[in-house]
Amino acid sequence: MTLEAKIAIVIGLAVVAAIAGAVWRNRTGSSKSVRDGGIVNLKELAALKNGNLVTKFGRKTTFIQFSSEYCTQCRQTARLLGELEKNDDGILHVEIDITNRLELAKKFNVLQTPTTLVLDSKGRIKSRIGGAPKVNVIQDELNEIQKASFEI
Amino acid sequence: MSIQEKAGIDPRGPRFGAAITSVLLLITVFLGLDRNTQDAGFILLAFIDALFLIGAVLGNSRHPYGVIFKKFVRPRLAAPKELEDPRPPQFAQTVGFFVASLGLATQAFGFEYGVALFGGLAFIAAFLNAVFAFCLGCQIWLGLRRIGVIRG
């Protein structure tokens, strides 16, 4: 193989990696709206919050965050959503470690962690966020839910 | 133990290591592309593979790059904004070990570009980690778990 070809391959590899990274960073943490999302069954979820079983949705919205063991961004996400919950008593943040609950991963089609489901006040899935949510994405979600609650 | 309770490491440590690894892997690819330099590429990948094994077994903080980071780099930096769970980067080291070993094995069994191909794949992951803080554990751990490659 010529030197030029080898250099081209090596540079090409670096460029491919850089483009892949830019695409990933752009996409991760964006929200996808879910059409005709079902209502989450809290019993089946059996999520714990401060040691208690979660039996009610948040008054305005609920963030269900699926986390796993080997996940750096889960921590950051939990901190971000926990902060929102602290500042608004209509918001509920539920974190579920699905390390040993693969049936939930299957049911909600979770492939990466964190994956966050955004529910409305009735517990219906409005959208889902793969990866650590971007702050503006969360803000948009909250605005939308605020708007919807005025319309009702 | 919940995800939040684990002691943390400086997240810049593993990324510092990944930056060195990605440069070495790019050199590996370059060497692996040419018959005349393939042996050198093989030796370099074997060296990187051994380091991955250290990281996978002992964790990033006892990995040579982690030690260099702690001794020489971290004292020059401001305190980290947040600490990170040490397990995700350790998982990434394990994945790196498997991928690099595949490169060595396929090359040893006669696939001419084994070192270049698998070195290239490992490069992409290491580069994404170093430059974009991409977390391999977040992206693939759950998927591997779901298809049964990893057991809990």
Instruction: Give the DSSP E fraction of chain A (strand runs of 2 or more residues).
Output: 15-25%
From N to C, what is the helix and strand string of chain A?
Answer: HEHEEEHEHEEH
Count of DSSP-assigned helices of chain B: 6
Number of continuous helical runs of chain A: 5
Percentage of residues in helical conformation of chain B:
55-70%
The helix-and-strand class of chain A reads alpha+beta
Tell me the span between the first and last alpha carbons of chain A: 69 Å
Rg on CA atoms of chain A, Å: 19 Å
Return the domain count of chain A: 1
**Total count of strands of chain A:** 7
Residue-averaged pLDDT of chain A: 92
Helical percentage of chain A: 40-55%
Radius of gyration of chain B: 16 Å
The CATH architecture of chain A would be: 3-Layer(aba) Sandwich
Protein architecture, described:
- The complex is a heterodimer of chains A (152) and B (152).
- Chain A is 45% helix and 21% strand.
- Chain A is an alpha+beta fold.
- The model of chain A has no long low-confidence stretch (mean pLDDT 92).
- Chain A contains five helices and seven strands; from the N terminus they run H-E-H-E-E-E-H-E-H-E-E-H.
- Chain A has a five-stranded mixed sheet with strand order 1-7-6-4-5, covered by helices on one side. Chain A has a two-stranded antiparallel sheet with strand order 2-3.
- Chain A has a single domain (30-151), classed as Glutaredoxin.
- In chain B, helix 2 runs antiparallel to helix 4 (87-108).
- Chain B is built from six helices and no strands.
- Chain B has 152 residues and is mainly α.
- Chain B has one domain.
- The A-B interface holds A 1, 5-7, 9-10, 13-14, 16-18, 20-22, 24-25, 67-76, 78-79, 97-100, 102, 105-106, 110-114, 131 and B 2-4, 11, 26, 29-30, 33-34, 82, 84-85, 87-89, 91, 120, 123-124, 127-128, 131-135, 137-143, 145-146, 152.
